[in-house]
Amino acid sequence: MARTIVLTNQKGGVGKTTTSSALAAGFARKGNKVLAVDMDPQGNLGFSLGVDIDKGPTIYEGLLGEVPVYEAIRRISNIDIIQSNILLSSAEASLKGEGRELLLKKFLEPVEKLYDYIIIDTPPAFNILTLNGYSAADYLVIPMSAEILSLVGLVQLKETYETVRQTVNPRLKIMGILLTKYEKRRKLSGDVQEMAETVAGQLGTKVFDTVIRNSVAAAEAPAHGINLFEYSPRSAPAKDYEAVIAEILQIIEEDEKDG
Question: Mean pLDDT, 10 residues at a time, over the chain (259 residues)?
Fold first, then answer.
């Protein structure tokens, strides 16, 4: 059965899609079967992995029940992906009825046993799309750039997380806060790291030991439609994401050992 990890933050520009892409690619490089799911109407996850997001069925048609999950999956390199595009922006109005927060979970159920990991990228907002991601997830990872404004919105995230746990997904766990775009020489990065530790305590989680260092490679890779590990495997962020994946694997192993 797949372990499902959702990347979430209400603030945009924090490295959420970069992290989604890196985790999907990193797990796949280790021989795992990986499905990446783009729940952001901007379609950046698919684009950054080299998908033509205007061709073929998307997650939107899947959530509407117009296509089965098998028809929505596309293969890019060694990663399977369900893409998104701007059509998904109408989801708030078009996805109606009781249980609409469970549409993604039900859509993915037929293929859960086929994958080791499912990585879900969510939009920078708390809406029905994000709620569907939370309802389908085992774990949340919160990317947060080393900037003060990145802390904004985490209180609302806590409220949404607790509501989902109490109603539709009691197994949901926040795996940790991941600091991105980190520059060791900047005092602000250290200050934000300290504040993130405080916020993590309030969320009942931790800040990952690894930080993702700032690098032009992370920004350039999506423009070439390839993942960071293929574009610049020796770059600082590629090495950092390898370390983060090791942390994630350890957390999952400990959870599964505890039952």
Answer: 93 89 96 97 90 88 95 92 93 86 97 97 92 97 82 78 93 95 75 84 92 88 86 93 97 87
* Gyration radius of the chain's alpha carbons: 17
Structure tokens at 167: 């109603």
pTM: 0.95
Tokens linked to 170: 């009691």
User: CA distances (Å), 178 to each of 33, 193, 213, 221, 249, in order?
Assistant: 23, 10, 11, 20, 15
